[in-house]
Specification:
Strand order of the largest sheet: 4-10-9-7-5-11-12
Order of helices and strands: HEEEEEHEHEHEHEHEEE
Distance between the termini: 40 Å
Oligomer: single chain
Radius of gyration: 19 Å
């Protein structure tokens, strides 16, 4: 039996489970709020083209309007000044859209402090227990933020959301073999990261400058084990696009143990 035949059998039997890490996209999806003098992303909106009516008796469909960075979405290197001239979302190799994932659970720390910043020592403590970060894989940073998902105001939290310390972001970008980082919050950086004096928006600056990627507004990370998941993400290949809303799926062996928190 081939590897793919074995996978199909495992999926049918439930030995391998498909877990959806994607937040449903709707008019209630929270989006980042920028200072008034900055350009603003569009929230998700739709307009009916026809709904089994005179405009189209046999078809229901809609026009939609939204930012590339709405809801669960993929950040390409071209999204940031440091990655200018690097890959846009249509240029990301398909092989980079599938890879191993690990989950670092800092929910307790983020619950105590919504401005919590992940530091290198947190990751090194995790690797001492679970092994090295995956080559060409994803670090999924769990903070418990998805519990706020039904309240957009609480989800955005007046910019008080957890993120990554600048020195840690630089280390992840320049000294690890990761493909990227995924988070539960509205962006890969902390809500107050624009005010950092040493390097504003460090995840965007360092990771995209290193040709790496970001995933945001993930859900169901509690259903993943610390190691062993296979992540699949499917952004739209928008030519010249800085990113795209995306469906993110994880394959997990049924017997894997779920992360219990930090």
């Amino acid at each position: 039996m081939s590897v793919l035949e074995t996978l199909v059998t495992a999926l049918r039997s439930g030995t391998v489970e498909v877990i959806d890490l994607t937040a449903p996209l709707s008019e209630e999806t929270p989006i980042i709020c920028l200072p008034p003098e900055r350009g603003q992303p569009w929230p998700f909106a739709r307009e009916v083209i026809s709904n089994f009516d005179e405009a189209g008796p046999t078809v229901y469909w809609n026009n939609i309007r939204l930012s590339e960075h709405t809801g669960t979405h993929f950040d390409a290197p071209a999204h940031w000044l440091s990655g200018k001239g690097l890959q846009d979302v249509s240029q990301v190799p398909p092989s980079r859209l599938v890879g191993p994932a690990v989950v670092l659970d800092m929910t307790q720390a983020a619950d105590r402090d919504p401005d919590f910043l992940l530091r290198r020592e947190h990751i090194e403590a995790w690797t001492a227990e679970h092994g090295p970060l995956p080559e060409d894989g994803w670090l999924l940073y769990r903070t418990g933020w998805e519990t706020r998902r039904d309240d957009p105001e609480r989800f955005l939290n007046d910019r008080h959301t957890p993120g990554v310390d600048p020195a840690c972001a630089r280390w992840l970008a320049e000294e690890t073999a990761l493909a990227g980082i995924g988070v539960e919050t509205v962006g890969t950086d902390a809500g107050l990261a624009g005010d950092f004096t040493d390097q504003p928006f460090p995840c965007h600056w360092y990771l995209h400058g290193a040709g790496k990627y970001g995933l945001t507004q993930l859900r169901n990370l509690a259903q993943l084990p610390p190691t062993g998941a296979l992540l699949m993400t499917g952004p739209l290949p928008i030519v010249g696009g800085s990113g795209s809303p995306t469906r993110v799926l994880a394959l997990v062996e049924h017997h894997s143990q779920v992360s219990e928190g930090a």
